[in-house]
Amino acid sequence: MPLRDHFRPPVSREVSWEEIHGMWPARIVIQLKSQLPPGFVSAPMVHSGSQIEVHIVTCERDDSPTGYSDSRDDGGVATAPATATWTVAEPSVAVETEIPDYDEYEVRIYDAERERTLVAVIELVSPANKDRPEKRNAFVGKCAALLQKGVAVSIVDVVTTRQCNLYTELMAFLGQADPTMGAEPPGIYAASCRWLLRGERATLQTWSHILAVGQPLPTLPLWLTPTRVVPLDLEQSYEKACDDLSIP
């Protein structure tokens, strides 16, 4: 079955792109369950936005230590008790800004026999990942860091409403280029990447495909170790996800 355009009518009127991006990782995990060799497990990771919180529990007590200055009411900074008075200096930068909302729609594959070591990641690109330069840089930096740690990275981008190509930006970040992407890289694509270490030398290997609405999705190599690989059948998991959501 062909790839649909989930970001434009008529499909977008029936099902939102967030629903397919949420269902697809789960379907990939189910598919991999029968393909991964013993000792390897996969798990979905879906995170929309950057709602990252650190909870600090404050206990109000009558016998609070003296010397504690709580100036929350006047916009100041509360400092813990100390043997000498210490005043926080003015910040070097204090500007109003937006908190980045980095979307994550991915599947992580672990080697459970090596203390659940992360060995591969499948990234489903969201519109937010392709938005402003800082968001694209964050996505590219994350993928590059994973590759440098020896984690194989697969990128699947079916976002038709934004035309930048994060795979080619990743390659440029690594100082390389993929001639199969052409002079004007396509907006939708799929690629698998890994750094293969041989002694003191490292080889960057990629397998890339240009996608098109109305065409089937490819099968990518999913590398678990330098010598162990399983097929990542994107078409099968995608169709299962579409069927689950009643997308014709």
List keywords for this structure.
8 strands; 248 residues; globular; two-stranded antiparallel sheet; 24% strand
Give a description of the structure:
The radius of gyration is 23 Å and the shape is globular. The chain has helices spanning 11-14, 17-33, 133-148, 166-173, 234-244; strands at 40-47, 104-111, 117-124, 152-157, 189-198, 201-210, 219-223, 229-233. Helices cover 23% and strands 24% of the residues. Residues 50-75 and 77-83 have low confidence and may be disordered. A 6-stranded mixed beta sheet has the order 1-2-3-4-5-6, with helices on both faces. Helix 2 packs across helix 5 (234-244) and helix 3 (133-148) packs across helix 4 (166-173). With 248 residues, the chain is of the alpha+beta class. It has one domain.
